[in-house]
Write a structure and sequence with these properties.
Radius of gyration: 17 Å
Structural class: mainly alpha
Mean pLDDT: 90
Length: 123
């Protein structure tokens, strides 16, 4: 699982948020199925070369949101209910698509041009 994670410290986005979003995507896409055991906070921090508190913050948010669960004396794992979590892949993309549409309007790109561009990139 560690090889699926990467962070960019020079990005404007906080590292804990990058981790949070990547793990949510892995869960929503089914790459991390319910009951999958996650590496320890220390292992993730060492692999990503970040502070363990940063990883801990991301994990705690995921626990609070119901994506992960912690059981005393056991490793953190993907929550059973995460497979039926209300968030879909399309919902995760909505904020980015809203930004894209706003930028397209500012640049004078009409909807047909944007659709055509998206279609060509998709291919």
């Amino acid at each position: 699982m560690l090889e699926l994670l990467n962070v960019n410290p020079s990005s404007g986005e906080p590292i804990y948020r990058q981790l949070h979003e990547q793990i949510v995507r892995l869960i929503v896409s089914g790459q991390l199925s319910p009951e999958t055991v996650l590496p320890s906070v220390r292992q993730m921090a060492e692999y990503l070369a970040v502070n363990p508190m940063t990883v801990s913050r991301a994990i705690q948010q995921l626990v609070d949101q119901g994506y992960l669960e912690r059981r005393r004396g056991q490793a953190t794992r993907v929550a059973e209910s995460s497979g039926s979590h209300a968030t879909s892949g399309a919902q995760l993309l909505t904020p980015e698509l809203e930004k894209l549409c706003q930028q397209a309007r500012q640049l004078g790109v009409d909807l047909d041009e944007l659709k055509s561009l998206l279609d060509s990139i998709w291919q």
